[in-house]
Structure formats: C-alpha cells, structure tokens
Design brief:
heterodimer, A: alpha/beta, D-Maltodextrin-Binding Protein, domain 2, 2 domains, 13 strands, 49% helix, globular, B: mainly alpha, MetI-like fold
C-alpha cells in the first residue's frame, strides 16, 4: 500500500507545482499583500471576458506578500508572469538586479504603468474630536498619530514624503523648519508597526491614536470593514501621488510562452471594466467615465509627484532613505 | 484523581500548587484553544462552513496534510537509522553526528528557509545549474517538503537516542546469540523496545510539520491554491482583515492536531490491550 502511495504523491506534487504548469493558459500574478480581494475580483472578470473573446479558458494564479519580499522571491526564481506592486522601486529592482524586466517597463503602459493610484490620507475617530484637517494638525502636541515604520514600510515612506511636501510649501522651502515639522509629527507616533495592515489594526482594533495615516484606498476600506459609524475619512489639502505599477516579467513570459496572455491581463486593468473594479475597491483611476461614476467617494485633492518635488525615486532614496539619510536624522532627533 | 488525593495528603501547600497549575493551564492552554473556535464560529455555522470549504483554504488543508504524509515517514526512517547508528556503533565523529542531527533545533526556521534559498534559488549557489536543466525547486511543493524535512529532522532521533542509550544492547545481543537475523532482531526486539518513543517523536514531528510557518514562508512563494500551507493561509486571511476566515482556517489546524492526539491515544490503547 505504502509503495503505491509514494508515486501517487509524487504525481500530485508534480501536477500542482508551478514548474509543471507550462503553457500559456496559466499565468502567475505576484502582488502586494493586501490586494488579494481586489485581484480575486479582477481575475474572475478577466477570465470571463478572455474566454468570451478568444474561447480560451485561462487561469490566473495569485501570490501575495510584502512587495520587497516578492521582488526578492522573483529574483530567486518565483515564476511571476506579471507583477502588480505598490512600489516603483520594487519593479525597478527586477530590472536592476536580475534584468528580468526590460528597462523601459514604465513607458510600456499608460500613466507610468500604473492603472490606478492612491495617496496618503487620514482616518480619524467618529466626529473628528481632535478636528484634524491637514498635515499641520498632525504636528500638534495633543494629537497621537499612527503610521508604520518608514524604514520597513513603503506605505509610511509615502506618508513621510507627503508630510515633507506640505512642510516645504508651508515654510517656503526652509529645510531646517521642514525637518523640525516632520520631526514633531514623528514625535506624536506612539508605536511604529512594520507594515500598513499592522498599523491599521493598531488604530482600529487596539484603539491607539487619534489619526491613522495610510493610503486612501485603505482608509476607505477600513470604514467599510469596521463600520462607517466609528471612523471618518479626511483628505488633506495636498498629498503625494502613490502609483501602483504593473509590469510583464519579460524573462518569465518569454520562457513560458505566456506573453500574449500576460499583456492582455495588464491591458484589462486599463479597460472601463477593470477600472471600475479598482475604483469599487477604493482606488482612484484615470478613466474619465469611471471617475465620474465614483466621484462622490474621492474628494478633490492637489497631488504632487515624487519626480516633481524630489527628482525621482533614486534621488529620494539616496537623500532621504539611505542609512544616515534625512529620515534617520529625523528619527534620531525625536 | 490520584494527584488530588496526594495533594490533600501533603496539606494545603500541595493543593495550592495543583490549583495554580490548573488555573495556569486553563489560562495559557485551554483559553486560546477555546477562543480559536469561539472566533471561528462568531459569524455562525454557515459562515464557518463557507470559510473552511473556500477553495484556497481547502487546498491549504490538503497541502498541509500532504506535506505531513511525505515528511513524517521519511523523518521516522531517518530518525531510527540515525539513532541506531549513534547508539549501537562506535566510530570516529560520532559525537559530531549527534550534534549535527540537532542543528535544525538551534537554527531559527527563517534562517533555514533563507539557507535553502541561497542554495537552490535562481541567484543561489546551485541556481545556474538548476536553471540550465530547467529544474525548479524553490517556490514549489518540493521546497516546502525540503524545508519541512530539515526543520523536523531531529524530532524522532532525539526521542530515540537517550532511550536506546539507556536500554543498552543486551537484548539485541541475546537475540543474535540465539540465532536471530539482523532484520529479525530489529523488527522483534529493537522496534518494540522503542515503540513509545518512536510514536511520540513521530507525533511531535507531525505537529511541527503542520504548524511550520517561518521556513515555509520563505520558500513557498505564497501562491494561493498551489503553495499556500494552512499557517500561511491563516496569516493571509488575517492580513486581509478577514478575522472569521483566519480563525476558521486556524480551527482546522487545531482539529488536525486534536486528530493526531486522538490517533495516538487509540494506538496506545490498542497496543496495551
């Protein structure tokens, strides 16, 4: 009996391992950790549409974890046909470290290869008891702010830079004053969690802090998850554009012969149908009709980009996030 | 309850100790276990069934059981062979071997996972060779089996070695003197002598395989419905703010553990009667 079991198990292992899933009817979408529901919905819609158009039944597999870790796994051989990340730097890493993605990946799809976007926004307790409206309120002494650690969380790096942008405008570019301003916000953070979801739980379930700073998409989803009565969303006067870049992993699709399907999948994210799903999951989108339909969810806000203010991610990484960079100094001086 | 009678005989301090032990086990062992099921059923039986039978969770349960079915027999054979070798033979490097067997205990599971990544990953030591032959190890079931084997390798051997050392080899020598073959000696003398330790080691090994998170999380690739084991699925659901789903998945892990325990009790009862 045992001797029959072994080949059966081996067969099962082979049949279910991704290496054996050759052929272009299956692709793997490697994504960030909180996008599971979003892409579950996208996949179902795409599979139906693709079958109606081409008659082919395809499968989209999903993998979710923090994007820096996912990028690392892909470099070590995780066969991702497409990546849908929330950090520009993690896609760029696939080009820089492994040459798995072509250098021009950002130019191959519209809007910097970001089908949808979001921005750091605020979630406050019901009735907004501390009257928190803008970044300046986060530096007030009576306000406890919750956001994750910018050293480990991409989400919090956006928060840090957005606060920096507000400071630059408020203090006419006087860097010493901006540093002081951002430092005062950091002093108001009672606990730095390692990731965005952990910070959400700290604020919503452990009830620590007066305001949570995280992506607007997350802010709106928390209200749906934990009850709209308990929280209010606040969009500051100015914030930073947070793009969610997508790319076909050239090295993988060329090896597996899945380029056509992978590209069709990413294109789908830009169709009105794909955009409506993303907007329904609280991401801002570019399609004008979908925008109009969901306009009530997304108040007007002035958005600046990392390129405009800081001269791109490479510059900002070197100046702010490197060891002993400005972020470290702000952290230490608190 | 002999313990209670003994405690009464020893006076109030004994009763206090027993009471303290009971309260602590209720707080630290029973309460969390109960809480898992309370949370899992928080949204009602229908919701529970829905979460547990969701395809990704169902697959995770199957994968976790499959991993145990693959890993535990291999490690039982390895453990018996290793214990036999180090307790019945004297040779150069014997102590080193004993230490080597225990290495997985002293290495953090996450380090174990990363080591395998450095060995078999695309940018790892054997990466170019594996890629040239189109062999994918990392982020497949093979990787999960491999790290699970590594992490749980010592369990059986560690249970057997002290016991076999204490028992000595007199019984086996007697059997051989009376004309038994090597295989007969092993099956009829050695194995019965160590069966409880062997069973206990296998159960520990099984529990650890099913619950292993750190090492598996590094090498699995987290592909839903393919390489997500139950502990990974629990984390995924929890990160999705899907508390009921996470606890429902966790409850199936708890049930698997309870089934293992029950199997042990039944086996014990049968062999004793």
């Amino acid at each position: 009996m045992r001797f029959k079991l072994v080949p059966a198990l081996v067969g099962l292992a082979l049949a279910t391992s991704p290496a054996a899933a050759q052929g272009a009817d299956t692709i793997l979408n490697v994504s960030y950790d909180i996008a599971r529901e979003l892409f579950a919905e996208v996949n179902a819609a795409f599979v139906a549409k693709y079958q109606a158009e081409t008659g082919r039944a395809v499968t989209i597999d999903q993998s979710h974890a923090g994007t820096s870790r996912q990028a690392r796994a892909i470099l070590e051989g995780l066969p991702a046909d497409v990546v849908t990340f929330n950090q520009f730097t993690d896609v760029q890493l696939l080009h820089d470290r492994g040459n798995l993605v072509a250098a021009d990946w950002q130019a191959r799809l519209p809007n910097n290869a970001s089908p949808f976007y979001s921005l750091p926004a605020f979630l406050v307790r019901a009735g907004n008891p501390k009257d928190i409206q803008d970044w300046s309120d986060l530096a007030r002494e009576d306000v406890a702010v919750v956001f994750p650690n910018p050293k480990t969380s991409g989400n919090a790096r956006y928060t840090y830079l957005a606060a920096w942008v507000y400071g630059l405008e408020a203090f006419d570019g006087n860097e010493a004053q901006v540093r002081d301003f951002v430092g005062r916000i950091f002093q108001n953070v009672p606990v730095f969690d390692t990731g965005g979801r952990a910070a959400t739980l700290t604020f919503a379930e452990r009830e620590i802090g007066d305001v949570l700073v995280t992506f607007e998409a997350e802010v709106l989803s928390i209200r749906e998850e934990f009850g709209e009565a308990g929280f209010e969303a606040v969009v500051p006067s100015v914030s930073l554009l947070a793009e969610f870049p997508v790319a076909v992993v050239d090295a993988v699709v060329d090896r597996r012969g899945s380029r056509e399907l992978a590209e069709a999948y990413l294109d789908f994210l830009y169709t009105p149908e794909g955009q409506a799903i993303a907007a329904g999951r609280n991401h801002r989108v570019h399609d004008p009709e979908v925008r109009a339909e969901f306009a009530h969810r997304f108040p007007e806000v002035r958005l600046v980009t990392v390129e405009e203010v800081f001269g791109g991610w490479e510059a900002v990484s070197a100046e702010h996030f490197a060891s002993d960079g400005i972020l470290d100094q702000v952290f230490v001086n608190q | 309850m002999p313990t209670v009678t003994n405690a009464r005989r020893q006076g109030p301090s004994g009763a206090w100790l027993v009471g303290l032990a009971l309260v602590l086990s209720a707080l630290f062992l029973l309460a969390p276990l109960v809480l898992i099921f309370v949370q899992a059923f928080a949204a009602g039986l229908d919701a529970y069934v829905h979460h547990v039978t969701e395809p990704a969770t169902r697959h995770a349960i199957g994968l976790t059981v499959l991993t145990a079915l693959v890993v535990v027999p291999i490690n039982v054979v390895f453990g018996v062979a290793a214990a036999w070798l180090v307790t019945r033979y004297r040779f150069f490097g014997r102590r080193l071997l004993v230490t080597l067997i225990e290495i997985p205990f002293s290495v953090s599971p996450i380090v174990a996972g990363v080591i395998y990544l450095f060995l078999y990953g695309a940018q790892g030591l054997l990466g170019p060779f594996l890629q040239a032959h189109d062999i994918q190890v990392m982020f497949t079931l093979w990787a999960i089996f491999l790290v699970s084997l590594f992490v749980t390798a010592p369990f059986v051997a560690r249970e057997l070695i002290p016991l076999m050392q204490a028992q000595g080899s007199e019984d086996e020598e007697a059997a051989i003197t009376l004309g038994a073959s090597g295989l007969q000696t092993f099956l009829l003398v050695t194995l019965p002598n160590v069966r409880w330790a062997l069973l206990y080691g296998a159960i520990l090994c099984n529990a650890r395989v099913m619950g292993e998170f750190g090492a598996v999380s590094v090498v699995s690739g987290n592909i839903r419905g393919q390489t997500n084991t139950l502990p990974l699925q629990v984390e995924l659901l929890f990160n999705d703010l899907n508390t009921v789903g996470a606890f429902a998945a966790a409850s199936t892990l708890a049930v698997l553990a309870l089934v293992t325990l029950a199997a042990k009790l039944v086996l014990e009862a049968r062999t004793r009667s």
